[in-house]
Amino acid sequence: MLKIGCHLSASKGYLHMGKEAVALGANTFQFFTRNPRGGNAKPIDEKDTEAFRQYAGEHGIEQILAHAPYTLNGCSADPSIRDFARRTMADDLQRMEYVPGNLYNFHPGSHVGQGMEAGIEQIADMLNSILWADMHTTVLLETMAGKGSEMGSRFEELRAIMDRVTLKNKLGVCMDTCHMADAGYDIVHDLDGVLTAFDKAVGLEHVHAVHINDSKNPLGSHKDRHEQIGLGTLGTEAILRVMEHPALREKLFVLETPNDLPGYAREIAMLKEKWA
């Protein structure tokens, strides 16, 4: 069964997002844990989370994907920014326990001139300080486009972070089709080669979710600008090859394309129709 959804606003709570996803033809969704530019999170409404868990069970929503704010940078050169990222993510993971068994995705961050090795160590140190043995959420490192000193655009960087984390069973990866292409991985003409490289560096078994986005930019641009499916440089057929690949077809697929809700509904319907 294809597990597909899109990014939704969390402002009205989990149950509202679940109903919105089903109305769009989706069976999963992604949401920001708080304002994507940072800030405080809304208090947890336990009645809402309980109602959502029941609704999800009744409507085939097996797993959802939370996304950390963009502003978190666990490898900043500024210790106060690193501490903010650590405290925010720790709070997010405690809140995720109200909807256990789901996924939490974050951008590894930018080392801001400190160098790759320092960035890797700082991200791993942050994760080691906030993960705990009996948590019920899997934390995902996202593949990135490689803007500036951004971490995670090379598969080997993700592996290096994971190798330094003690609770490896709590970690995974979220692939992003736009980001990987912008980082220089040619998923249009050499998907098998890219996935072989990922498997060698990280292991395909660690992929839990895939952001399916077209790209406004050419291969290797390092710019990270998403486009609607079929309107960018990747194209619909390349996106479908990702979704249909034997190594990925059972994963969670989430649209982050520049769209309104009717646009998401159209993309979901089109991809469901074409998915083999």
Cα-based radius of gyration, to the nearest Å: 18 Å
Mean pLDDT value: 96
What distance separates the N and C termini?
A: 10 Å
> How much β-strand is present in the residues?
15-25%
Strand arrangement in the largest pleated sheet: 1-2-3-4-5-6-7-10
Number of helices: 9
Helix residue percentage: 25-40%
Low-confidence stretches: none
Largest sheet: 8 strands, parallel, barrel
Beta-strand segment tally = 10
H and E string: EHEHEHEHEHEHHEEEHEH
- Net shape: globular
Structural class: alpha/beta
Question: What does this molecule look like?
Answer:
- With 276 residues, this protein is α/β, with parallel strands linked by helices.
- It is built from nine helices and ten strands.
- The protein has an eight-stranded parallel barrel with strand order 1-2-3-4-5-6-7-10. Strands 8-9 form a two-stranded antiparallel sheet.
- Strand 5 (138-142), helix 5 and strand 6 (171-176) form a beta-alpha-beta unit.
- Helix 4 (116-130) crosses helix 5.
Topology:
Blueprint: E1 3-7, H1 14-23, E2 28-32, H2 46-58, E3 65-67, H3 79-96, E4 103-106, H4 116-130, E5 138-142, H5 155-163, E6 171-176, H6 177-182, H7 191-201, E7 207-212, E8 214-215, E9 226-227, H8 236-244, E10 252-255, H9 261-274
Parallel strand pairs: 1-2, 1-10, 2-3, 3-4, 4-5, 5-6, 6-7, 7-10
Antiparallel strand pairs: 8-9
Helix pairs in contact: 1-2, 3-4, 4-5
